[in-house]
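Reviewers asked in the last cycle whether our approach scales beyond single polypeptides. To address this, we selected a multi-component target totalling 416 residues and predicted its structure end to end. The input consisted of the following lines:
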Amino acid sequence: MLTLYVAPGTCALASLIALEEAGAPYRAVKLDFAAGEQRGEAYRRVNPKGRVPALATERGILTETPAILAYVAQAFPAAGLAPLDDPFAFAELQAFNSYLCSTVHVNHAHRPRGSRWADEETSLADMKRKVPETMTASMRLVEDDYLKGPWVLGERYSVADGYLFTLGNWLEGDGVEVGRLPRILDHRARMAARPAVQRARAAEQGKG
Amino acid sequence: MLTLYVAPGTCALASLIALEEAGAPYRAVKLDFAAGEQRGEAYRRVNPKGRVPALATERGILTETPAILAYVAQAFPAAGLAPLDDPFAFAELQAFNSYLCSTVHVNHAHRPRGSRWADEETSLADMKRKVPETMTASMRLVEDDYLKGPWVLGERYSVADGYLFTLGNWLEGDGVEVGRLPRILDHRARMAARPAVQRARAAEQGKG
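The resulting structure, written as structure tokens, was:
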């Protein structure tokens, strides 16, 4: 039995979607971010980074969304969630997920979490003002160059689709004009209709 | 024949080290960052992100260091650069590389590249002031929790070692008191002595 540590509205949703699509046996443990539970002693023993997601397996704890997504795909190969037998295609999947993690998510984080990188209120306000521009630019690259369609990798659905869906849900809040990203919007609508995605969203709220 | 697009002093060194350790046939193409070559039309056709590294293969272009490192390990399995037959150990490797990419490298980038996320000079100065703190904190986590020793994954050398070495070379410039990170310093010294690392450093400077 796997245990995934999550919080609503975070990138942990991508890992929940992967577990649901895989049909994996798991339970979701919801942390209370408002109470700072992710920085508490108990959770620090699970994940010293103080963040979600973290996946507890019988071998130990895994963190970082791209790593968890690849793990779920490899641990449940029958679900076909990654091109495991093709190093180039697998690397394309990894490159997509890595870009979401290190560029798109980081751009977004400068709105709610600018204090990770600067101290002055004026700096945090400056960062917030720039988020619509940076999120639009990075998602524009996804729209134009990396989302092959209908799914991220083309005809083949993969763990990357749940990750794009997860970060795509932040666009309106980040001030992005989503009407100018029609392929991402279409992808989002098709993702929202998948039963596994609906189950993952319920699990994210502690209703799993 | 693989082609790796690089620039001196960037994270592209990690991919050069992986290619050298793998004994892969490749050539390195050095971009002139001072002239803005990475943002020019010709390179945009290689990598629309306008960054290095990018690896041109016979199947197409790969970007993002964690993806390139995993690809090199999978494409040259005889070199033993990743635990390819163990999904959990492979995920640990991916988690380490993802953390370097999305947290450590991002912390560093707020010194030379703060204008990615804010516009005002005062904000950029504020970001620069905070880099010693954020780089120390993220490398402290590597030192205490993730570098198993003697190599990142323990007894087994992997592509993660070249990535840690690459980012570890930035510590002094980022204002980190490296004497307080003795395990990372020891790792760095052992890495610097490896012939493949020395060849990669020469290739980075266009002397390969």
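Chain B has a mean pLDDT of 97. We regard this as preliminary and will revisit it once experimental data from Aim 1 are available.
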